[in-house]
């Protein structure tokens, strides 16, 4: 079995010991992803978009897209904010909604408002 690891080069990959995504046995496993970059939005919708952009990039590098996502997990420190992301998530997954779980929990830093993890089947 061939395993492909996809790194984003983010600071936490080296600190924690993981990579953005792993391709194995016909699936793409994308690690929990928070907002990325030098200018991270403070609001949950902006952070959700940033996380989705990073996930989309990893999926594309693996040869997949959001249409191939079969499972998504959302992690939020404040569940009351999740509804603000719904229009963006409907736009992203559209006619191909994955199975989903939402968990309220602490994230890696107090400024993080959402973390998103996906699993996709390779087309």
TrEMBL record:
It comes from the Bacteria. InterPro entries: RutC-like_sf, YjgF/YER057c/UK114. It holds the Pfam family Ribonuc_L-PSP. This is Enamine deaminase RidA. It comes from Ruegeria profundi. The lineage of its organism: Bacteria, Pseudomonadati, Pseudomonadota, Alphaproteobacteria, Rhodobacterales.
